[in-house]
Amino acid sequence: MSAEPTDIVTSAFAGLPCEVGRGRGVIATEREGLAIARIAARRGRKGTVAQVLRANFDIEPPDGPRRASGGEVALAGIAPETWLATREGAGNGFAQSLRPLLGHCASIADLSDAYAILRLTGPDVRATLAKLVPIDVHALTFGVNVLAQTVCGYMSVMLWRLEDSAQWGPTFEIWVGRSLAVSLHEALCQGAAEFGFVREPPCGPAHDGRRMA
User: Fold this and answer.
1) CB 133 within 8 Å of CB 150
2) Distance between CA atoms of 5 and 175, rounded to whole angstroms?
3) Is pLDDT above 80 for 204?
4) How is residue 33 annotated by DSSP?
C-alpha cells in the first residue's frame, strides 16, 4: 500500500489574514527556511565552545541575552553558556553539521521546526509591541541585537531587535513555539489594528488573503 504525495502547507500562518485595518503601520514577514540549533556547553567547556565558534564562524558567543552575527550565521544567548545558532537557508542539516565541531564540548539540538518567526517593522511597530509585551522597547532601552525572553499576551516569546530598516525604521523579530503561531498572529493583528497590519510576502495559494476590518 502506498500513499500519494500531498501538498503540505509548511507556513505556520497559512490561511490567516494578510491585512488588518488600513495602512502599513506594522509590516510582518514570516522567516522561512531558517536553520536553528541550540548549543549548550558542557560543564567547564564554555571556553572550548567559544574557541570553536570563533575559529569556524568568526563569532564571539554573547555572554548575555544578546545576538552576534558573522555572515549567514548568528548566535543569541538564551541562558548561561547556552545559545541559539541560526543559519540562513541551511535547513535541518545545520545542527548536524555542528556536531563534528562541537559534539565533544557541547550538546546540540535541532530546533529548526520548533518556532514560528515573524520579522516586524514599520512606523508603528514600537507602539504595537508596547501594547503586547511587558518590557520597554524604546531605542534607548532595547538596543540593536538585544534579546528578551518575555510574554506576548499569555504566550512565552523571544523578542530581539535587529538593525533598523532604511525604509521602515525599527525592526524586531518575535519567536514563538510553532503550536502558538495562530495565537501570536491574532495578538499582533489586534495590537496593530489601529495602525494597519500587513503580512508579507503577498498572499499566495496557501493563504486565502482574507481581510479583517
Assistant:
1) yes
2) 30
3) no
4) S
Give the pLDDT confidence score for residue 92 in this predicted structure.
85
Q: From CA 174, how far away is CA 188, in angstroms rounded?
A: 10
pTM confidence score: 0.85
DSSP conformation class of 44: T
Which domains occur in the chain, in start order? 19-32+114-204 (3.30.1360.120), 34-110 (3.30.70.1520)
**Mapping DSSP to helix (H, G, I), strand (E, B) and coil, where does residue 25 land?**
coil
* Confidence category of residue 213, pLDDT binned at 50, 70, 90: very low
* pLDDT of the residue at 209: 36
CA distance 83 to 177: 17
Return the number of other C-beta atoms located less than 10 Å from residue 180's C-beta.
19
DSSP 145: T
Compute, in degrees rounded to 10, the torsion defined by CA atoms 21, 149, 146, 123.
10
- How many whole angstroms separate alpha carbon 197 and alpha carbon 19? 5
Kindly tell me if the per-residue pLDDT of 172 is higher than 90.
yes
Res 104: pLDDT:
94
